[in-house]
Structure to design on (442 residues):
């Protein structure tokens, strides 16, 4: 894991990533046109490639390009109620997609220890940061639990599908929730013991093996996104 | 766990914080899972808060039963707000979750997080967090699609939007969400009594 950092062309500080997310949300909100949003997604894709997530970034860009073409087509050739429905839906989609894509890149490239250490640098309240870090760490585990639960349900002849839910709601609900929540509360106990053992309650400033510092790459990326956001605001005023 | 030193003065131990984090993760996944079928469908998108409210009741009640201290629900609301904001949802969605999280926390606090009826009510309140986006949509439908249509306001679109979203829809949305949340909390309460209290999870 340590060696990976050296091969990547760009390594960003978690603080920069949060700033980028904020700028991205603002840009998506201020977006004056669809072309602008397309450029935003392209920029995020390039960032993703530089951060070493090239497969994810390419998938996201191709998918967005398809939706973009569909939107242009829908705006030009549809009429009436159908068009209005798509306007509301696609309006939401175009706002959400760039930010969702960027947060996917951010979450998959940030390690929990880096995140905690950076948050410590900006003096964020621990009460908020610990649950947040635990949450980000736990989401993949839910996916894993879900696969085990599905196997267990099949073994008991309970179908883990929508049809099974309709025909036999009570037992399906029990079979999904009970193991998931039992596992969660067990995991909560274990994780908190582990965290205490590793000194999360230590009142001294936290130290981290990976040095967190802001570099030229951070400044350059932030500058790019900030200029892009200001350009969006300017275009909106002019247009 | 009385032997754990407290992190800061107001009583949340590390265990409580970790529990809140884990249950926030499940809450988030289930909200998304319940909402996604509605959100991707243009006709049903207004009913998304109901879909989200349907699945999370048991999780919320177990969180309250496990932690039963002030601030944990607020933290849940704030985390939901941050996560939804970062995934690019409308800002009203995030603010709604943060605000409703605080209100829900106060409501459950009235019964010292032990009263089942008040816990249920507080779940109904936090479920309302999702509807603020749509309320803003009703107040300002032109701003919503501004980026889509160049120079936004085609008269035909405005007219059609008024017919497509009648004025009773927000009322249906609020009442429906409350109703669905109450149902979910009822199921959750039963599940808690049947499965978790006997197993000693909710100490």
């Amino acid at each position: 894991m340590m060696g990976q950092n050296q091969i990547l062309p760009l390594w960003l500080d978690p603080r920069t990533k949060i700033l980028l997310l904020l700028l991205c949300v603002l840009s998506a909100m201020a977006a004056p046109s669809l072309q602008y949003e397309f450029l935003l997604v392209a920029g995020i894709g390039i960032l993703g490639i530089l951060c070493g997530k090239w497969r994810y970034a390419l998938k996201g860009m191709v998918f967005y390009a398809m939706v973009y073409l569909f939107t242009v087509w829908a705006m030009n050739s549809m009429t009436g109620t159908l068009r209005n429905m798509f306007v509301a839906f696609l309006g939401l989609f175009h706002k959400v997609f760039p930010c969702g894509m960027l947060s996917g890149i951010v979450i998959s490239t940030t390690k929990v220890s880096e995140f905690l250490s950076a948050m410590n640098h900006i003096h964020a309240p621990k009460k908020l940061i610990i649950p947040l870090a635990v949450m980000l760490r736990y989401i993949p585990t839910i996916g894993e639990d879900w696969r085990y639960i599905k196997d267990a349900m099949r073994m008991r002849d309970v179908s883990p599908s929508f049809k099974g839910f309709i025909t036999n709601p009570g037992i399906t609900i029990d079979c999904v929730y009970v193991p998931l929540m039992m596992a969660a509360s067990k995991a909560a106990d274990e994780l908190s013991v582990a965290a205490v053992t590793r000194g999360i309650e230590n009142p001294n400033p936290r130290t981290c093996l990976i040095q967190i510092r802001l570099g030229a790459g951070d400044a350059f990326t932030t500058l790019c996104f900030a200029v892009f956001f200001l350009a969006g605001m300017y275009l909106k005023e002019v247009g | 766990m009385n032997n754990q030193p407290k992190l800061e003065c107001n009583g949340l131990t590390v265990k409580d914080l970790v529990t809140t984090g884990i249950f926030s993760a499940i809450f988030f996944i289930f909200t998304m899972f319940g909402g996604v079928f509605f959100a991707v469908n243009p006709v049903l998108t207004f009913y998304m808060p109901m879909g989200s409210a349907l699945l999370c009741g048991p999780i919320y009640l177990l969180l309250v039963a496990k932690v039963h201290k002030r601030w944990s629900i607020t933290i849940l609301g704030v985390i939901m707000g941050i996560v939804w904001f970062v995934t690019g949802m409308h800002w009203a969605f995030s603010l709604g979750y943060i605000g409703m999280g605080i209100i829900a926390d106060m409501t459950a606090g009235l019964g010292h997080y032990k009263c089942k009826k008040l816990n249920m009510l507080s779940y109904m309140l936090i479920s309302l967090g999702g509807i603020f986006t749509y309320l803003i949509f009703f107040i300002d439908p032109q701003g919503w699609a501004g980026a889509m249509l160049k120079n936004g306001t085609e008269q035909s679109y405005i007219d059609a939007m008024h017919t497509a979203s009648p004025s009773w829809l927000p009322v249906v949305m609020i009442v429906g969400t409350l109703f669905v949340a109450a149902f979910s909390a009822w199921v959750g309460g039963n599940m808690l009594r049947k499965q978790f209290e006997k197993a000693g999870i909710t100490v």
Q: What stands out?
A: Residues 80-109 of chain A form the longest helix (30 residues). Chain A touches chain B through 63 residues (CB under 8 Å). Chain A has a mean pLDDT of 82.
